[in-house]
From TrEMBL, chain A:
<dbReference type="InterPro" id="IPR002645">
    <property type="entry name" value="STAS_dom"/>
</dbReference>
<feature type="domain" description="STAS">
    <location>
        <begin position="2"/>
        <end position="113"/>
    </location>
</feature>
<dbReference type="InterPro" id="IPR051932">
    <property type="entry name" value="Bact_StressResp_Reg"/>
</dbReference>
<dbReference type="InterPro" id="IPR036513">
    <property type="entry name" value="STAS_dom_sf"/>
</dbReference>
<dbReference type="Pfam" id="PF01740">
    <property type="entry name" value="STAS"/>
</dbReference>
<protein>
    <submittedName>
        <fullName>RsbT antagonist protein RsbS</fullName>
    </submittedName>
</protein>
TrEMBL record, chain B:
<keyword id="KW-0418">Kinase</keyword>
<protein>
    <submittedName>
        <fullName>Serine/threonine-protein kinase RsbT</fullName>
        <ecNumber>2.7.11.1</ecNumber>
    </submittedName>
</protein>
<dbReference type="GO" id="GO:0004674">
    <property type="term" value="F:protein serine/threonine kinase activity"/>
</dbReference>
<dbReference type="InterPro" id="IPR003594">
    <property type="entry name" value="HATPase_dom"/>
</dbReference>
<dbReference type="InterPro" id="IPR036890">
    <property type="entry name" value="HATPase_C_sf"/>
</dbReference>
<feature type="domain" description="Histidine kinase/HSP90-like ATPase">
    <location>
        <begin position="36"/>
        <end position="136"/>
    </location>
</feature>
<dbReference type="InterPro" id="IPR050267">
    <property type="entry name" value="Anti-sigma-factor_SerPK"/>
</dbReference>
<dbReference type="Pfam" id="PF13581">
    <property type="entry name" value="HATPase_c_2"/>
</dbReference>
<keyword id="KW-0808">Transferase</keyword>
Length: 128, 136
């Protein structure tokens, strides 16, 4: 079974799902995240599903579970990068993901959490 | 209607559920289905494959390209298990009803995502679910 890596950026834990999710991987991710939130005192969790081509009821329930669980541990969850075809399918499946915050991309998700964005770009390093 | 022999794969683990999704994705893409319809049929397949594994105690999935009388192409999926069967089909197809810890969206959700849905079940003998999605 593959495990999904959890990265830490400041006060935010970033989970970028790059594998075909099987159920055991999903359950392991829930546990790993709960553990990391407690150990790091993170205030936010971002789940990036840009590379995820389907969300079924089991995966959708994982988002809702992670959101509720992290809220209990004083962290906000945002799911980012949902593909249009996935959103259309989720609605037809009957899964509204109520209670889960979403943002179009990682940058908007970071903003939603009030996390500072890196200022690396042309001139950013040298500007006063 | 022509139904060329499709690939049949076992569903005996969580990894097999993932493999079925990949197989259905390839078949839907090969049939020329739109990305949205591919996503719908793969999602339906994921729900049904999980049911076969978790509730049916394992079984198999057959994925086959089909063409109807008017020449319309599509993909048909047949999920078969020899598990305990479904005692109350109407209940199993009810949104939100669950026999396990799920959301109760598996069967009704898969039915909505497909164009055709057929369920045969016998208590103590097993269940076969057949879904078809046609190209728009």
């Amino acid at each position: 079974m593959e495990r999904v890596p959890i990265l830490k950026i400041g006060q935010v834990l970033l989970v970028s799902i790059q594998v075909d999710l099987q159920d055991q991987t999903v359950l392991a991710l829930q546990e790993d995240l709960a553990d990391r939130i407690v150990r790091t005192g993170a205030r936010g969790v971002i789940i990036d599903i840009t590379a995820v081509d389907i969300v079924d009821s089991f995966i959708g329930r994982m988002f809702a579970t992670i959101a509720s669980m992290s809220r209990l541990m004083d962290a906000e969850t945002v799911v980012v990068g949902m593909r249009p075809a996935v959103a259309i399918t989720l609605v037809e499946l009957g899964l509204s993901l109520g209670g889960v915050r979403t943002a179009l991309d990682l940058e908007k998700g970071m903003r939603l959490l009030g996390a500072p964005l890196p200022a690396i770009g042309p001139g950013a390093v040298d500007s006063p | 209607m022509t139904t060329p022999a499709g690939d049949s794969v076992p569903i005996a683990s969580n990894d097999d559920v993932v493999r079925v999704r990949q197989l259905v994705r390839a078949a839907a893409a090969a049939a020329g289905m739109s990305l949205v319809d591919q996503t719908k049929i793969v999602t339906a397949a994921s729900e049904l494959a999980r049911n076969t594994f978790v509730h049916g105690g394992g079984g198999s999935a057959r994925v086959e390209p089909v063409v109807n009388a008017r020449g319309r192409a599509g993909v048909r999926l047949v999920f078969t298990d020899t598990g305990g069967g479904i005692p109350d089909v109407a209940q199993a197809l009810t949104e939100g009803w669950t026999s396990g810890g799920g959301l109760g969206l598996g069967l009704p959700g898969a039915r909505r995502l497909a164009d055709e849905f057929e369920l045969e079940t016998e208590v103590g003998r097993g269940t076969t679910v057949t879904v078809t999605k046609w190209i728009r």
